[in-house]
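Quick review question:
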């Protein structure tokens, strides 16, 4: 199975399930309830899709950029609740990190396995060359370089 396909399985299943539940409600004559039932499924699908995360880059490029700018590298995968928690708890600060989707980048998956004794435990964050598995978002925010002010 292609990595891109695997990342979309859960969001597609949630959308299809929500559509079936909504269709059953429409057949019973309740279109308002159908819309109310479909909305949570669509929201869950969006949250569990790659769309909820900043654009991913390859592991080699992320490490190169991190060496140049000192920003951490986050290894993640779609559908991971801990990754989603980290992403949303970082807020806008998430854009400052270099994100690597381990389902799209075999080198990223290998880096995570090397850091976690053979497991693909995500999120794994590399700060200053040291891996941290599922770090506290508040701690990670403290590892970000200060924003550059334009004069």
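Suggested answer, residue by residue:
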């Amino acid at each position: 199975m292609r990595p891109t396909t695997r990342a979309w399985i859960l969001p597609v299943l949630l959308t299809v399930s929500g559509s079936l539940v909504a269709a059953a409600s429409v057949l019973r004559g309740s279109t308002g309830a159908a819309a109310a039932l479909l909305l949570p499924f669509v929201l869950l699908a969006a949250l569990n899709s790659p769309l909820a995360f900043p654009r991913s880059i390859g592991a080699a490029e992320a490490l190169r950029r991190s060496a140049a700018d000192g920003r951490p590298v986050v290894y993640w995968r779609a559908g991971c609740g801990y990754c989603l928690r980290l992403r949303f708890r970082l807020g806008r600060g998430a854009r400052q990190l270099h994100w690597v989707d381990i389902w799209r980048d075999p080198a990223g998956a290998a880096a995570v396995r090397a850091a976690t004794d053979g497991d693909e435990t995500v999120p794994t964050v590399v700060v200053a060359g040291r891996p941290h598995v599922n770090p506290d978002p508040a701690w990670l925010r403290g590892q970000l370089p200060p924003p550059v002010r334009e004069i």
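Why it works: The chain has six helices and four strands. Strands lie at 73-76, 98-101, 124-127, 130-133.
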